[in-house]
What we know:
There is one protein chain. This protein is α/β, with parallel strands linked by helices. The chain has a single domain, classed as 3-Layer(aba) Sandwich (Glutaredoxin). It has 5 helices and 9 strands. The strands form 3 sheets. The protein has a 5-stranded mixed β-sheet, with no helix packed on it. The protein has a two-stranded antiparallel sheet with strand order 1-2. A two-stranded antiparallel ribbon has the order 6-7. Strand 1 and strand 2 form a beta hairpin.
Amino acid sequence: MTAAATPRVPAVGEVAPDFTLPSTAGGSVTLSSLRGTSNVLLAFFPAAFTSTCTTEMCSFRDDYDAFTGQDVVIFPVSVDNTPSLKEYKAKYQMPVDLLSDLKREAATAYGVLVPDRFVANRAYFLVDKAGVIRWAFVEAHAGTRRENAEILAEIAKLG
């Protein structure tokens, strides 16, 4: 019997691992269905209603037009269930649709699941229209996050 391989974070230049996750908009989102139409920012976050996560999600809300103006769809992803994420979205008036990774499949595929806490680490993956990861950043600590200016600078490099 062999030990299971530890999931690794996909590298820049690799095709983004595909997933289908329930959305706060109703229905599900399949990442590969956006190929050819949109750049995507996947923003994994540990948990709704926590301080750093709320600051981060509200910053996406506040700069929403800057992201959409650069042809980027933001998909925050957490292990919270969809009803909780709907309540979170409504409470903070977020224009983005949040994705529920309750089964931890996407967090595992992206190598960002924190096994001892069973939540996703805060991490960012910028996926271009071809479905290729063009920028990735995994935070060392859950209490830190990237500022939107840094993320938008990476998006600008997509050309």
